Each structure stands twice: as C-alpha cells, then as structure tokens.
Amino acid sequence: MRKKLCSILLVLALLATTFAGCQSTPAHNSKLEDSTAKTDGSSQGGQSPATSDTINFDEESYEVNFLYLVAQEGANQKKVEQAVSDLAKQELNMTVKLIPLTFGTYFSQISMMLAANESLDLFPAFSNQFSTYIESQYIINCADYLEEARDIIDVLGEDDAFTPYIGDFLVGFGAMKERAFPAGLVVRKDIFDELGFQVGDFHITTDDYSSFDQITELFSKVKEAYPSMICLDGTSIMGLQEYSYMDNLGSNFGVLESYGQTTTVTNWFESDQYRKFCEIGRDWFQKGYSSQDIAVNQDSGEIKMKAGNCFSYITNVKPNTNVEKRSQTGYDVEVIQLGEAMKSTNGVNATVYSIANASKDPKKSMQFLNWTYKSGAFEDLINWGIEEEDWIINEDGLAAFPEGVDSNNVGYHNDYGFAYPNQFAGHPWQGNPADIWDQYREYNNNLLVSKAFGFTFNSTSVATEEAQLNSVFEQYKKDVAFGAVDTESGLKEFNDALYAAGLQTVMDEKQRQLDAWLAELN
Fold first, then answer.
1. How many angstroms separate the Cα of 519 from the Cα of each of 263, 286, 452, 507, 515?
2. Phi, psi of 37 (to 5 degrees)
3. Which of 120, 273, 372, 468 is 20 to 30 Å from 51 by CA-CA measure?
4. Which residues neighbour 311 within 8 Å (Cβ) at sequence distance 6 or greater?
5. CA distances from 459 to 194, 441, 509, 510, 516 (A)
6. pLDDT band of 15, cuts 50, 70, 90
7. Secondary structure class of 170 (helix, strand, coil)
8. What percent of the chain has pLDDT over 90?
9. 472, 498 Cβ separation under 8 angstroms
10. Rounded distance, CA 516 to CA 419, Å?
11. Closest CA to 70 of 426, 519, 384
12. Are the C-beta atoms of 57 and 28 separated by less than 8 Å?
C-alpha cells in the first residue's frame, strides 16, 4: 500500500510541475499573500495560502456544509459563519454553512445525520466508527481526490496523511496536533508547592512499577495536611488510559503491549501491567486517597478540581497541558507524566475529517478541506472568533481577550485547536510559550513509534463481537481499574466475560490483518 501511494504522489507531483508553467493564476490571487508551505504544519504569519490555480471564479459558488466541534455555541456564531463564508468566497469561490456541535451533541446526532443523508460535506470522524461508516456508505473514499489534497499531504507528511486508510479506502485526513497521549497526573500547584514538591522529584516509569510509590507518598502527604481533601478524582486512572500504555489497534480488545514495541496481539486486561495498575488503584481506593464514588462518578477531573476539594486527576497530557488546564480548572497546575509517550495510528486518527456521502460535489469539498489546512485566518475564526471583538493579537503575537472581554462575556471562544484541521496555522492563546507550536513539532518528532503505526483495523467482520465486548468493558472497567472491587476476583470475572463475549475471535482477526499489513510493507 505505501509503495502504491508513493507512486501516486510522484505522479501528482509531476503533473503539478507540468501544469504550473502552462496555467495562469486568477487575478484574485494577486491580492493574497503567498504562504510558504512547510512539512511541519505551519503557515507563515498565520496568513491564508494563495488560491489554487484550479479555482474558477466565473462559475456559481459552491456552498460547503462544514460540521465541526465547539465548546459551546456563542452569541457571535452567525458572525463567525459569515466571516468564514466571506473568506472562502474570496479565496475559493465557495460559501460556507457552519454546523457547530458540542461533543455531547455530536455523539448523539452524527450517526442519525449520516443515515438521513442530511446536507453535509465535511465532518470530523473518530476511528472507532471508520468501519461502520464505510460499510454503511456514509462517507466518500478520499483516495479518489488526492490531487485536490496536495497541501494537506504537505502539512501532515505522507506517513501521517495516509494512516486513515482501511484497505484501499481513505477515510479522510487527520488533524494536525500532538501525536501521543501519555497519561499524566494533573495536580493543584498551590498545595503541591506548599508541601515542598517539584515535578523534577518524580520519575514515574513502567520499567519499575515501584516508581508509582512516589505518587502514593504524595497522596499521603496531601491527606495528612488536608484530611478532607480528595487526593484523586475524575474519570480516569492508569488502567483506563487505553491510548497511553499500549497500541490498542483501534479498540481495546487485542493490543500491542510495551508501547507497541511488539507485533503480537494480546489481551491487555490479563497482562501483568494491567494487573499492577489495578492493584495500585485498589491501594489508593482502600487508603481513601481516591474518591469513594469514583467508580460511578461521571464528572471529569477538571470539573472536580474546579469545585475546590480535589487535589489531582489523571488525563492525557501534552506540552501545554498546564496552560490548558488552568483555564479549565481555575487553578494553576503542575503535570507529572506517568509513563512514555508513544505514537500510534490512534494518535493521528483521533480526529479525521471525512467527506460525507451526502456531499453534492466531493471534489470541491476536498478543495475546501485542503484550504483549511493552510489558512491561518480560517483556524483563528473557528477557534477564537471575530478578531478585535472576541480576540486580539497581543504584543507577544498570541491570541488574547480584548480589554473588557473574558470567558464569561466573550461572544465566541472554543480553544479546540486540537480538533480542527491544522491548529499550527493559527495563533496560540496567551499563557502558552510563543514557540508552543515548535514545542509540539519537537514533541511529535521524538516520540516512540508503535511497530503498527499506519495500520488501521477493519472491524466489519467482528462487529457483533466488538459490540458485545464494549458492553462488557463498560460494565467492569471502572470497578476494576479504580479498585472499587477486589483485584483478583474482579480481574477473573472481567476476563471471563470478555472471552465469553468473543474476545479471542477479535484478537485472532486483528492478528491476521496486522500480519498481512506487515507482510505488505516488506
């Protein structure tokens, strides 16, 4: 597959070179500042790229229906939609209808929207639905429109651009963001500092599970100083960080352990690592360090910390987690990483922009998507809103609230760059280092890479088993991982239920597909 794709790209590159000398640039282009493409995903000065020489400004404008995720729908939503539409009309001869959905609304509506064939061109898809979308014919094969995606491929790089392939079907293109989801403990800085701790004091590694005793000692000190304080709360713990410690190959049922440094599919839930994580969770639960209702709690760690009586929670972390969580919790925080950072296919396929089968013109939809990966103005609009009204560029070159505006009265504000095509093209928010995108690039370039990177599991043939397994997982996962039940008996009951639900069948199919994929690479 990879060799075939490289050949396609070579042909496209040759075609681009050939046509460049014989096609003229529309007059509209002369009014736009050219933005030099970089393979690291950036765009010079946050400016939009020059319009493609294939755009016909004499034909009727095409309206793109673009579904995207928002923190909430702000008062300036219509203004943002108009600004995006005006920008696309100037640069692409397209107009835009924005379809903003929160995460909760998205997951309850997207399948119904696709099944009903509602007006939709582009939307973010998640890897656990890829096979269903293909089988149900909800999405277009983006492999048929690679020539329109040259800037996307340039931004993402060939390896990352083509990870959403299932067989010969390209589901879409992933968002430009961090490529790993290591587990981390987010702690309140005021208490952490008061007790004399520093992040440099902690060296947590899965090479030595006794290193987690450092976290137990931290909780002990917090509990001693603040008896009523809940040391750990939220919705996650090491045993629930399914993207952090192994490559789960698209689902939790059959994984590559050791951060993907093996090619043998195994059951993580009966591994020594998972058992150890559950034992640690049980210890924290019995000592009263974790909330006694943590196994049934539905509120995130951010919500719990913001309420004022939670010292820490576990989540996925990245270079600027401390800045991001400060605004979400209301506290300055420190972050203790709880293991290695691994790049897997999931890291790239976490958010993939797909073309809906309902699109009236998939080619134009791909042209629009291609543009979004290079347009800093587009990224800033859908993330921060209307410049000078919802946000400004401060003296450090970062996005910030204008005077008199804050998170309580702003007309539009998301801070969802991670879910948009290319956050590197836009402005970082104040509080981040000015070079945060450089930090992200360095982070991405130095990750441990899973041996199955680029492989996407096609779960169609085991869809029934996976549905049954998900039900079992939901039933047992929190009780066992948080230690609300006895580890030994809980693990046995959990694994017996998984195998009864068809775990071995799914594992065998994953191994078969992975072996075939690995053989094709050689």
1. 12, 48, 12, 18, 6
2. -75, 140
3. 120
4. 187, 188, 191, 219, 222, 226, 229, 230, 231, 232, 305
5. 50, 32, 8, 8, 15
6. very low
7. strand
8. 78
9. yes
10. 32
11. 384
12. yes
3-state secondary structure of 103: helix
- Please state, for a pLDDT cut of 70, what percent of the chain lies above it: 90
**Containing H/E element for 66?**
strand 62-69
Residues 150, 151, 155, 161, CA torsion sign? negative
Q: What is the largest CA-CA distance in the chain?
A: 76
Question: What letter represents residue 42's amino acid?
Answer: S
Reported confidence tier of residue 42, pLDDT bands at 50, 70, 90: very low
| Two tokens, residue 345 | 């296919």
pLDDT in tens, 376-417: 999 999 999 999 999 999 999 999 999 999 888 999 999 889
Q: Do 448 and 341 contact (CB within 8 A), yes or no?
A: yes
Single-letter amino acid code for the residue at 135: E
Q: List the structure tokens of 176.
A: 């430009």
CA torsion, points 136, 139, 143, 146, in degrees to nearest 10?
Answer: 180
β-strand partners of 99: 67
* Beta carbons within 10 angstroms of residue 323's beta carbon: 17
How do residues 244-287 score in pLDDT, each as one tens digit? Answer: 999 999 889 999 999 999 999 999 999 999 999 999 999 999 99
pLDDT in tens, 343-383: 999 889 989 999 999 999 999 999 999 999 999 999 999 99
Report the pLDDT averaged over residues 225-233.
97
Residue position matching structure tokens 């352990």: 257
From the list 75, 72, 181, 120, the residue with the least C-alpha distance to 416 is: 72
Does residue 389 sit in helix, strand or coil?
Answer: coil
Pairing of strands 173-174, 169-170: unpaired
The rounded distance, in Å, linking the Cα atoms of 296 and 214 is: 26
For the record, the structure tokens of 441 come out as: 């690039």
Q: How many residues does the chain have?
A: 522
Strand-pair category, 310-316 with 173-174: unpaired
335 neighbors 305 (Cβ within 8 angstroms): no
Integer-rounded Cα Rg, in Å, for the chain is 24
Q: Calculate mean pLDDT across residues 146-152.
A: 96
In this prediction, residue 13 carries a pLDDT of 44
Q: How confident is the model at residue 151 (pLDDT cuts 50, 70, 90)?
A: very high
User: For residue 399, which of 374, 424, 432 has the smallest C-alpha distance?
Assistant: 432
